[in-house]
Specification:
This protein is about 50% helix and about 15% strand. With about 475 residues, the protein is α+β, with helices and mostly antiparallel strands. The strands form five sheets. It has a five-stranded mixed beta sheet with strand order 11-12-13-15-14. The N and C termini lie far apart (about 50 Å).
Length: about 475
């Protein structure tokens, strides 16, 4: 079974792996289910969703499942975990009992449990968990894995899967125990890889390095090696960093570069922003890591595009060179990046790029006011980038194309908020977190799919800013 553990940045939407690999000119790679070239763009699908890229930024397309896919600077690599069936009695008969009519039969699970065979009960709940994971329904997967582990508490594959599901749910500290236990009961490359990811998500970079090195000793893997290089670079860069904590944040900083007054202001600003975003969206993420860098260290570690002012790749990373106080601009950036932590928690890393960036800009306090006329003209001419082509990564764009992508994202989120209310944005995120496709989450909340939404945004901009 291929299980993806992702860590998405504020300008990145990480995706499930498929068969063909798009290699970008900046070295990044996108693994997709299918890829086609059409009209000067490279169009690809991942699961139920469709994306598109300008052909000018694509170096080549590799066909076949054997193509390697190193992680980008902001995305953790894929992890191949063993099939539970290697150790559990997952027969076709048991599979048919658990999965019926395209869903998990919870009555069957209870019946199997009453039959009193712990091994078969654990296997049944493992089947249910795997089905939920394939649907990206991580809350259900966690519940099924917890049930499976009641019967098989020292089954390594179940422990690995449970730890990775907890990561996807943002329950990073809870993932430590099953990940550590997995390496003691089944010290495999997979177990140490998962443990390395868990340590990293919990800010324990030195332990993450040790676990990833152990994984590579047991089995060579380009994705793990790429992750190890990233973590080692971060560990070296932050070797002399100090820590300061508040209720929801752990801040790391270089003592000689960051004044005490500035650090305190940043934490106060973040805590105030946290209360506002939590009121709007819910989610309540915990133990959010914030790293303050010099300009050079920021770009060295994140490999972010030159136009970025901060990034959230699971940790909020901010360049603060020359700053002595929290300016209104920095306060806005902090709130923007913090919003991504809430979105990640609620959507379980399934939020499309346009919605992720649109909601973050709305929370930042931005409006379409200063760009409304140009946006209205762009939509009226039909030359906007369709939203379903903005589901993926924004950091692959140059400054000008990124500016358009962010503006359209703001217009979409602002329209939904102004028309249906802020709770509707939160409900769309919750639907994504429950495994719905983007189209389904939109329709179940605002009763419009992509085509209708594009028309409604066009009318909204025309009404507010003219034709």
């Amino acid at each position: 079974m291929r299980l993806i553990i992702t860590l998405c940045s504020s300008v990145v939407l990480c995706a499930i792996a498929g068969g063909d690999t798009i290699v970008l000119k900046n070295g990044d790679r996108i693994v997709a289910d299918s890829v086609q070239e059409s009209g000067g763009r490279v169009r690809y699908t991942i699961g139920d969703n469709s994306f598109a890229l300008p052909k000018s930024i694509v170096a080549k397309i590799e066909t076949g499942s054997d193509s390697a896919a190193p992680a980008s600077a902001a995305a953790l690599p894929e992890v191949d975990l063993p099939e539970p069936s290697a150790e559990l009695p997952i027969t076709g008969h048991l599979l048919d009992r658990v999965i019926r009519n395209g869903s998990v039969d919870t009555d069957a699970l209870r019946t199997i449990e009453r039959e009193g065979n712990p091994l078969e009960s654990g296997a049944a709940y493992s089947i249910a968990a795997r089905y939920a994971q394939d649907k990206r329904d991580f809350p259900s997967a966690a519940r099924y894995l917890e049930a499976a582990l009641r019967f098989l508490p020292r089954q390594a594959a179940l422990l690995e899967n449970y730890a990775s599901v907890l990561l996807n749910l943002g329950r990073n500290s809870e993932a430590l125990s099953p990940a550590q236990l997995a390496t003691s009961v089944g010290p495999s490359a997979d177990a140490y890889t998962v443990l390395g990811f868990v340590y990293y998500r919990n800010g324990r970079t030195r332990e993450a390095v040790a676990a990833l090195k152990k994984s590579l000793e047991l089995r060579s893997d380009d994705g793990v090696r790429s992750m190890l290089n990233k973590v080692e670079q971060e560990s070296r860069s932050e070797a002399d960093f100090r820590e300061q904590e508040s209720i929801h944040f752990v801040m790391r900083y270089e003592g000689s570069e960051t004044a005490k007054a500035l650090r305190s202001q940043i934490l106060e600003t973040l805590e105030e922003a946290y209360r506002g975003i939590d009121s709007d969206l819910g989610g309540s993420p915990r133990n959010i890591y914030v790293s303050l860098y010099t300009e050079q260290a920021y770009f060295d570690i994140t490999q972010a595009p030159a136009w970025s002012t901060a990034i959230n790749d699971g940790k909020i990373r901010i360049p603060i060179s020359g700053l002595k106080t929290v300016t209104p601009e920095l306060a806005g950036v902090l709130r923007h990046e913090l919003t991504h932590s809430f979105i990640r928690q609620i959507s379980h890393e399934r939020c499309p790029g346009w919605l992720n960036e649109g909601v973050a800009q709305v929370e930042q306090g931005l409006t379409t006011g200063s760009i409304g006329n140009r946006l209205a003209a762009l939509y009226a001419s039909g030359h906007q980038i369709p939203l379903n082509q903005l589901e993926g990564r924004f950091d692959i764009f140059g400054r000008d194309e990124a500016s358009v992508a962010y503006a359209e994202s703001l217009a979409a989120a602002e329209y939904i908020r102004n028309t249906y209310g802020m709770p509707s944005l939160a409900q769309i995120l919750e639907g994504l977190g429950q495994g719905q496709s983007v189209e389904s989450a939109l329709r179940s909340t605002i009763h419009s799919g992509y085509a209708e939404l594009e028309n409604e945004i066009t009318d909204y901009l025309k009404k507010n800013y003219g034709s």
